[in-house]
Amino acid sequence: MKLKLHWQVLIAMFCGAVVGVIFQLVYNAKPSGWLYTLIISLGTIFIRLLRMVIVPLIFTSIVSGVSSVGKGKNIGRLGLKTFFYYMITSIFAILIGLMLTNLIHPGYGANIPITNDFNPENLKTPGSPVQILIRMIPLNPIKAASTGDMLGIIFFSIFLGVVLTKVKPQTQDFLKKFFDSSFEVMMKITEFVIKLLPIGVFGLIVKAVSTAGFDLFKVVGKYMLTVCAGLSIHLLIILPLIFYLFTRINPIYHFKAMASTMITAFSTSSSNATLPLTMRSVEKNVGVSNKISSFVLPLGATVNMDGTALYECAGVIFISQVLGLHLGFAQQFIVVLTALLASIGCAGIPSAGLVVIFIVTQAVGFKDVDVGVIIGTMLAVDRPLDMFRTMVNVFSDSVGTTIIAKSEGETNLYPELKK
Ligand code: ASP
Question: Which of 42, 80, 163, 333 has its CA 20 to 30 A from that of 3?
Answer without folding.
Answer: 42
